[in-house]
Specification:
alpha/beta, Rossmann fold, Dna Ligase, domain 1, 3 domains, four-stranded antiparallel sheet, 12 strands
Length: about 290
């Protein structure tokens, strides 16, 4: 019998927009790598987890549902090992992430955090924003409409009103950054780090990559990007992460999104063994 038994919880399809297959593939690939290393990994859907719970003391998960996150946090408080942490997953929701990264001094766009039923035009104008991004602040994005690019304050006000009518009460407004859009994947405590230009690869979830368009190849230090991401992962408390940043013409880097356990789609085969190794190190060091 395997010495280490792990519950593996898949992400519900509603939280894998346009990436259900990719999310499942990296999770199953990681589970296979753990099995090669002598672990027993029992796979559950997020729905099964919420309905029946799990008995294993080690929980590897891609959960995103509110109920799942609360359950994970309860299990952590009871002493079970949860990767990624339920608290870390919650910290990746937009308003929390924005507050955490800005407070930690991690390079991040100038931002406003607002109620969707308030008059934001004076705030946007006083902040000096022209084009900006409006993102639901209360939870993870589930639909393309949860992230909106707007060109001026009047348009921002209209979008926020739509959010309010959809039942979204809080939003984050990020100033639009000009530069190369870069997507990255990493694992805390690992040498593995991968980045690429999503527009150039045709890699997209919602199609917003076209706003920044084709990369100009602005030079930047990969070590600086990895260091920024490592700091961000520590601050939000997640082990397996990914996200997006903008590289300006002068090589400066600002994170615009940071996620718990992304798909690793372009580097899945390379990433899975590194994720498994990092998980085993966490287990052995506990």
């Amino acid at each position: 019998m395997a010495e280490i038994t792990i519950a593996g919880i898949l992400r519900a399809g509603a939280y894998s927009p346009n990436h259900i297959g990719n999310d499942t593939a990296i999770f199953n690939g990681t589970a296979d790598e753990l099995r090669k290393r002598g672990c027993q990994v029992n796979i559950y859907t997020e729905e099964q987890f919420n309905r029946e719970g799990v008995s294993e003391n080690i929980i590897l998960n891609m959960c995103r549902e509110r109920e799942s996150i609360k359950r994970l946090q309860t299990l952590e408080d009871e002493g079970r090992l949860v990767i990624n942490s339920g608290y870390g997953i919650e910290n990746c929701t937009r308003e929390r992430m924005t507050r955490i990264l800005l407070a930690a001094g991690i390079p991040y766009p100038k931002s406003l955090i607002v109620n969707t039923n308030e008059n934001v035009k004076p705030l946007i104008e006083n902040a000096g924003f022209k084009s900006c991004w409006i993102k639901r602040g209360d939870f993870h994005a589930m639909h393309k409409e949860d992230v909106s690019y707007v060109r001026h304050a009047d348009e921002a006000q209209e979008v926020l009103q739509e959010y309010f009518y959809r039942g979204i009460t809080r939003a984050v407004i990020n100033v639009h950054l000009v530069g190369d859009l870069v997507k990255f994947y990493g694992i805390k405590g690992s040498n593995f780090f991968y980045w690429f230009y999503p527009f150039d690869r045709g890699h997209s979830k919602y199609g917003w990559e076209q706003v920044n368009g084709e990369s100009q190849g602005f030079a930047f230090e990969e070590k600086d990007l990895k260091d920024i991401c490592t700091r961000a992962a520590e601050e939000v408390n997640i082990e397996i992460y990914g996200g997006d940043c903008i590289v300006a013409e002068d090589g400066s880097i600002q994170i615009i999104d940071f996620n718990d356990w992304p798909s690793f789609a372009p580097c899945r085969n390379e990433a899975a063994p590194h994720i498994a190794k990092a998980i085993l190190n966490i287990i052995k060091n506990r």
